[in-house]
Amino acid sequence: MDDPDRYAYPHRVLHWLVALVLLFSLASGFTLGFLGFEGAVEKLGDTWTDLLYTAHKTFGVLILCLMVARVITRLLFVVPLHEPPLHPFQRILSRSVHHLLYLALLAMPVLGWTATASGGFPVQFLHWNLPGLIGKNEALSEQLFLWHGRLGWTILGLVLLHIGGALFHWLIKRDGVMKRMSLF
Questions:
Q1: Are 12 and 182 in contact (CB under 8 A)?
Q2: How far is residue 18's CA from residue 70's CA, in Å, rounded to a whole number?
């Protein structure tokens, strides 16, 4: 039986899986964004650059799948109430950050997928090429990659707010909010 003060176990597992995959996705994405293709080839070589691109695309597809599962678990299981209740400002901030993270983590892989496909590049998951969803359009690809990068920075900011809120509740308020999402 689940503790009514905690999220359901599947939701907690998915939370931490998304966090882990997101860490690698952001690291690989920012590396590729800073270096660019030519810079990555110069610094890492062809093989490592290809591996980094494939890994980044794989992480994106994984995040999309995990986030769909998170939305399903969020709909299937009861969301625990905050005990003690959050102040109205904290509740609004918490909900806003959570909803924006969900939206961004669903939109980001879709943007990456369509940007990659419209650029004429393979959309990969591990060693499999996935359908491109849209045809080649280099101008569209350029715009989609621009928004993909901007959304990456937005996600980083939202994650930092989320972590900051968690640390605030854990270290300063000591109100037990951290146990809601802990695995143990």
A1: yes
A2: 9
Tokens coding 18: 């998304």
Q: Can you say whether the dihedral through the CA atoms of 112, 116, 117, 123 is positive or negative?
A: negative
H or E element, residue 124: strand 123-125
Could you tell me which residues are beta bridge partners of residue 125? 128
Contact 64, 123 (CB under 8 A): no
Q: Please list the pLDDT of the chain residue by residue as tens digits (184 residues).
A: 467 789 999 999 999 999 999 999 999 999 999 999 999 999 999 999 999 999 999 999 999 999 999 999 999 998 888 878 888 999 999 999 999 999 999 999 999 999 999 999 999 999 899 999 899 999 999 999 999 999 999 999 999 999 999 999 999 988 888 888 888 8
Bridge partners of residue 124, in order along the sequence = 129
Peptide bond between residue 84 and the one before it cis (omega within 30 degrees of 0): yes
Tokens of 97: 């950050």
CB atoms within 10 A of CB 135: 9
Q: Is the Cβ–Cβ distance between 168 and 97 less than 8 Å?
A: no
